[in-house]
Design a protein that fits this description.
Helix content: 55-70%
Number of strands: 5
Structural class: alpha/beta
Oligomer: single chain
CATH superfamily of the largest domain: Cobalamin-binding domain
Length: 208
């Protein structure tokens, strides 16, 4: 791995990141190895975010820098090359908020996951179809409206009735979502931010 690239990614030094990616590429370093250095830097960004050294703006910026760098490599790491498996994500039906979901999508991809983003106002049937097709270890349901908590509950219940709950963990997130919400809708875990989602999914991938 490139220590210089890891440190530049961790420090959000966009110019150095892009210069180093170009230099490593010209030296014949494999795109996957370069991506691994970028992901190592993203891991440090995540730790700094948890320690409140970085805030949401830095987290968003880190994902943007990662995406720019990966584009220099032909978009490697966005899908297909994902080492941590598949993560299905969508905003529950009757809710069209997407900013938080989009941040999670970008940060998850930056951390080696293939993200199947179902979009917003996603009906239960679409979640079930995606779980059957892509076989994720974790599915994320985003909900920004308290009026849609019952929709999330109905969706999770339907996933269980389809016999899929033993094979997939259900993660929920969104501004008003808390532990009480999680119990009400019968979710496996609550994620308050994108880094929470990454950390949980990585742990789950590792133990399975």
């Amino acid at each position: 791995m490139s220590k210089k690239l890891i440190e530049a990614m961790a420090d959000l030094d966009e110019d150095v990141v892009l210069e180093e990616v170009k230099a490593l590429k010209e030296q014949g370093v494999s795109p996957l190895e370069i991506i691994e250095s970028l992901q190592e830097g993203m891991g440090i960004v995540g730790k700094r975010f948890e320690e409140k050294e970085y805030f949401l703006s830095e987290l968003i910026m880190s994902a943007e820098v990662f995406n720019e760098a990966s584009q220099l490599l032909g978009g490697v790491g966005q899908a297909g090359e994902a080492k941590n498996g598949v993560f299905v994500l969508g905003t529950i039906y009757d809710d069209i908020h997407d900013i938080g979901k989009n941040i999670v999508t970008t940060v998850m991809r930056s951390n080696g996951f293939e993200v199947i983003d179902l979009g917003v106002d996603v009906p239960t049937a679409k979640f079930i179809e995606a779980i059957k097709k892509h076989k994720p270890k974790v599915v994320g349901i985003s909900c920004l409206l308290t009026t849609c908590f019952d929709n999330v509950k109905e969706c999770i219940q339907a996933i269980e009735e389809e016999g899929l709950r033993n094979d997939v963990k259900v993660l929920i997130g969104g501004g008003p979502v808390d532990e009480a919400t999680g119990k009400y809708v019968n979710a496996d875990v609550i994620a308050k931010n994108a880094q929470n989602t990454v950390d949980y999914c990585k742990q789950f991938v590792e133990v399975n």
